Amino acid sequence: xxxxxxxxxxxxxxxxxxxxxxxxxxxxxxxxxxxxxxxxxxxxxxxxxxxxxxxxxxxxxxxxxxxxxxxxxxxxxxxxxxxxxxxxxxxxxxxxxxxxxx
Length: 102
Prior knowledge:
The chain has about 100 residues and is of the alpha+beta class.
């Protein structure tokens, strides 16, 4: 697709949908639209026609900030000096009676 044609079709938007009450929103795909209202309408037409949808979110792709592969070692590894943040620090599991009573 050419850059000029992309400009004519609007900005790129990411679509997230919720299929049931209290369910998480999941990424459904991308669409192009000139503004948020048109993005919602396009998202409905493309992604909500085939099933029961409870909610739609649209977010401009340019507004999403994400980590890069270079961030992984320093960003996601737990700090060694904060063992209380590690799961093995806690002696109880979800199967223990203590959790079931609270």
